[in-house]
Design a protein that fits this description.
310 residues
Length: 310
């Protein structure tokens, strides 16, 4: 049975993306008081622990965990350690709104990698047009920073490159979950990988950064708690969707085009030093049109469900 365009898959994907879109403000707030590795590591260790009560009553057998240990470590490395280590580093170089929109290129990276690594998940004309429009939006945002005119612009260009590498790491993590994650309950897999990845980031921070100070203001602790909650909830939703046989990695990740738009708007509202420009609005427009084009067939013909788009 095909999924209705307003069924649980799109709805859950939108909820996860809306949760993720709030991360940019929270991370920029926390980085004012703490190094990126220590902050990221603390966030994800706490996220993993928050999920333990949700899977403990149906915890897998030790033999199942050991048999899937390689998968857990791979997902932990790509989906948390590499993705968020690069993400937090990139956010020290670029404004929150710009970071939100660069992370919006993740559907393009996911689609290209899935084309080569996931059987049956190929590029299609509609998917290609949507992704190219999204890429044009990212290019507009990147070039609008004029990196050739100042050291600050060059730093932001480097930050954009770091964030694109983060996109690639996250896409590989998604592919591993989609291909090999069926033996593990998604909440347990998320809890394990996010805790291990966070612990790795925290350990890496020890020789390079100062430990988190207990005297940090309430805004820091509020950001840390919120970020830990959203990671626990959003990733659990996402892993559940990736396990559905009808869901393709590239198509699910197209919903992530919502993240840059919502994340940028929240950054402009909540971060006093950030504001919209003609270029940023133009880039957001391209990204929004990409989402509409991709989903237009299903919206025009809801009785047919989500088309295969081949």
């Amino acid at each position: 049975m095909k999924d209705h365009p307003l069924s649980s898959i799109p709805l859950l994907a939108i909820i996860a993306c809306l949760l993720w879109s709030t991360a940019f403000v929270g991370v920029k707030t926390g980085l004012q008081y703490c190094g990126p590795l220590a902050f990221a590591g603390s966030r994800f260790v706490l996220s993993g622990l928050l999920l333990v009560p949700l899977w403990w009553s149906r915890r897998p057998r030790p033999a199942t965990v050991l048999g899937n240990g390689g998968l857990i470590l791979k997902v932990a490395f790509f989906q948390t350690f590499a993705l968020y280590g690069l993400f937090y580093l990139g956010l020290t170089l670029v404004p929150g709104a710009l970071a939100a929109m660069v992370i919006g290129a993740s559907p393009l990276v996911s689609a290209v990698l899935a084309h080569y690594l996931m059987p049956g998940d190929r590029m299609t004309p509609i998917k290609t047009v949507s992704l190219l429009l999204g890429l044009i939006g990212i290019a507009i945002l990147s070039l609008s920073r004029q990196p050739w005119t100042s050291p600050a612009g060059l730093s932001e260009l480097i930050g954009i490159g770091v964030l694109l590498l983060a996109n690639a790491a996250g896409a590989l993590g998604n592919i591993f979950v989609s291909r090999h994650g069926s033996a593990l309950e998604p909440v347990f897999l998320n809890s394990a990988q996010i805790f291990i990845g966070g612990l790795g980031l925290w350990l890496l921070s020890i020789p390079f950064e100062e430990p988190i100070s207990l005297t940090n203001p309430p805004s820091f602790w509020a950001a840390l708690i919120w970020l830990s909650f959203l990671s626990a909830s959003a990733f659990s939703i996402w892993f559940k969707l990736l396990r559905k046989p009808s869901v393709k990695v590239s198509e699910l990740n197209l919903w992530k085009f919502l993240i840059p738009v919502c994340g940028a708007i929240l950054s402009w509202i909540l971060l006093p030093e950030e504001y919209p420009t003609v270029w940023s609005l133009g880039g957001m427009g391209c990204i929004s049109i990409a989402i509409i084009i991709y989903n237009l067939p299903a919206l025009l013909n809801p009785a047919a469900g989500l088309p295969d788009r081949r």
